[in-house]
Design goal:
Blueprint lengths: L10 H26 L5 H9 L5 H33 L7 E4 L13 H4 L1 E13 L2 H4 L7 H16 L5 E3 L8 E2 L24 H11 L10 E3 L19 H5 L10 E3 L2 E6 L8 E7 L2 H11 L5 E4 L5 E2 L8 E2 L6 E4 L3 E8 L13 E11 L5 E10 L7 H22 L4 E11 L10 H4 L3 H4 L5 E3 L2 E2 L21 H8 L2 H7 L26 E5 L8 E11 L11 E9 L1 H4 L2
Parallel strand pairs: 2-8, 3-5, 7-20, 15-16
Antiparallel strand pairs: 1-9, 2-21, 3-4, 6-7, 8-12, 9-12, 10-11, 13-14, 14-15, 16-19, 17-18, 20-21
Length: 576
């Protein structure tokens, strides 16, 4: 069954929902501002000190009174809106879908997969902390709407850069900046409002195949000097005063050590997102306006976007003890048409996490056709697990649900006449592979099914890995407030100790970290895993690149991660 754009069964229900939400928004916004005016970020505090501004107590006093009065004045309208809005959640599909019209022919970068039998797929995941502004401030982040715009521009600027090798004339560089080469198809069906169905029309498939077959484009070795036109969109942090203006205007500031390889895994700490990302998974996009801003920017590169993912109100219906104020925060952008999508909400959330509908999103995407006219598809799964420390049992139960739901989804939607070329699971797992307190999760069976390219074993990371959770109080310090500075910090073990979150010890036990002769890595809680057992038997998967991205410095408290997989299809097996 094809996906429709609206989350509601018809326009009338969608209209009633919009009216109810319009009554709620003013009251919600005034409450948000009431809390935000009382909570400052460390950046705002330092700015007031520099400007010798001592009017903060008056601002808090009069702002609190004003917003509280406005909150009370709009509360009756919000209650009426709630009476319209809440019952309609029972008939709401747990995501909205945006489909962009087909891209221009030059956007298609893969030609000839059916002849070469090779293709690369690039995935990225990032936690953005796009909560309502008042709540984001408790994570030392503010200006949610401005951050959403800046993040979207950074992502598009990073992934749309040319597929070339770039020489960086910089004293701090000892190599070339080697962005990921692109072999991504941009497959789009011609009708707005629905994806390609599970049994598409042959003429439609033929048209899809002509425009965007899967190809392998081999990265040439042409070296070009880095100039300002190479990266049209650099990091324009909403807190622009904290950045060195010259580094924003001069892309040569974005130096890189280039791809390095250790233990057969090529890896890089990069100031830019990988070029030509195929599928992008974002977490903590809770704010609806921020989600729409991201959608409007990312649709320039991604033709298929799922947003506002999750459920609201009483879930299951009529159970007020599990009321969901926020959606799951998941956001998925894909260059490939989405054939099937399914969302499950975790039923065992506890505490403040129970206010959000965290869960699992599973999608099946259409890559194209091979020479035998068999469909080529991929599976992509994203999740955000329970957050509070010391509650590993809840996360383990959620991981059990994740593996069960993925197996059910693939069993229900797998067809005999198609080839599966990738099966990926990613997201913010909220546990790491170095904390003694996360020992239970580190030994979960999910790591037997899916491979983690950064993991040497339970409780042991590979030596080149870096943590992905930043210390929130230091987000705006000079060592981490620009992409280049954050890159240098992650490459220095001494600096990582200051700015990456420390492992969590077991209760009543001192922390001994790192072990002798092991590097200091910190908490890596953002994962991209891949599975080989569920793909077609004639396909072989190789890791082409693992990337830790610093482009969102100052915009979020996480380090985005990227994974590039090279898939080779054996032609002899394919002919059988």
């Amino acid at each position: 069954m094809a996906l429709q754009a609206s989350a509601f069964p018809n326009g009338f229900v969608a209209g009633i929902h919009a009216v109810g939400w319009a009554f709620i928004v003013p009251c919600f916004w005034f409450l948000d501002r009431l809390i935000a005016v009382c909570k400052s970020t460390t950046l705002e505090q330092s700015q007031r000190l520099e400007q010798e501004c001592y009017l903060r107590p008056l601002e808090v006093f009069f702002g609190s009174i004003t917003f509280f009065i406005l909150f009370l004045a709009t509360a009756p309208f919000a209650f009426l809106g709630f009476l319209l809005w809440a019952p309609l959640q029972a008939c709401r599909r747990p995501f909205s879908y945006h489909r962009e019209m087909p891209f221009l022919p030059e956007k298609a970068t893969n030609k000839g997969f059916e002849l070469t039998g090779k293709a690369s797929f690039v995935f990225a995941s990032a936690n953005l902390c796009l909560l309502p502004d008042s709540l984001a401030r408790f994570n030392n982040l503010a200006n949610t709407q401005h951050r959403a715009t800046a993040i979207g521009q950074c992502i598009v600027g990073g992934i749309s850069r040319p597929n070339i090798r770039i020489l960086v004339d910089s004293p701090s560089s000892c190599g070339t900046l080697s962005p990921s080469s692109s072999i991504l198809p941009t497959v789009n069906s011609p009708t707005y409002g629905a994806t390609v169905s599970q049994h598409p029309d042959p003429a439609e498939m033929h048209d899809l195949n002509l425009n965007s077959n899967i190809d392998c484009v081999t990265s040439d070795d042409t070296e070009e000097p880095l100039n300002e036109s190479t990266f049209p969109l650099l990091n324009s942090n909403c807190n622009s005063n904290q950045q060195d203006q010259s580094s924003q205007q001069n892309p040569q500031a974005f130096s890189s050590q280039g791809l390095r390889q250790q233990n057969d895994v090529p890896w890089e700490i990069s100031p830019l997102f990988p070029a030509n990302v195929d599928i992008l998974c974002l977490e903590e996009v809770f704010d609806k306006r921020a989600a729409r801003k991201l959608t409007n920017i990312l649709k320039l590169e991604f033709g298929h976007i799922l947003y506002d993912i999750g459920v609201y109100a009483c879930q299951p219906p009529c159970r007020c003890s599990s009321f969901k104020f926020f959606n799951s925060g998941l956001f998925l952008a894909s260059r490939f048409p989405v054939l099937e999508a399914q969302y499950h909400c975790f039923p065992n959330s506890r505490g403040e996490d129970a206010l959000a509908a965290k869960g699992l999103l599973s999608v099946k995407v259409l890559i194209g056709q091979n020479q035998k006219q068999k469909r080529v598809v991929g599976y992509f799964n994203c999740t955000h697990l329970h957050a509070p420390e010391g509650e590993g049992e809840i996360r383990c139960i959620q991981l059990n649900m994740v593996t069960k739901w993925i197996a059910e989804f693939q069993a229900a939607h797998k067809l005999p006449d198609e080839d599966v070329v990738f099966d990926v699971l990613c997201g913010d797992f909220n546990f790491d592979n170095c904390s003694p307190d996360d020992c239970q999760e580190q030994n979960h069976s999910v790591f037997e099914e899916y491979k983690d390219p950064c993991r040497a074993g339970p409780g042991k990371e590979k030596p080149w890995v870096t943590g992905t959770l930043l210390e929130q109080p230091t987000l705006y310090e000079e060592d981490v407030n620009t992409p280049e500075n954050l890159q240098r910090t992650l490459e220095s073990e001494d600096l990582r100790k200051r700015y990456i979150a420390r492992p969590v010890p077991k209760a009543d036990s001192p922390l001994v970290y790192p072990e002798t002769d092991q590097p200091w890595i910190g908490r890596r809680i953002d994962y991209i895993l891949y599975r080989e057992s569920s793909i077609s038997k004639q396909c072989r998967t190789e890791i082409e690149e693992v990337t830790f991205v610093t482009q969102l410095a100052g915009l979020t408290d996480h380090i985005p991660v990227g994974l590039k997989l090279n898939v080779v299809m054996d032609s002899d097996s394919a002919d059988e």
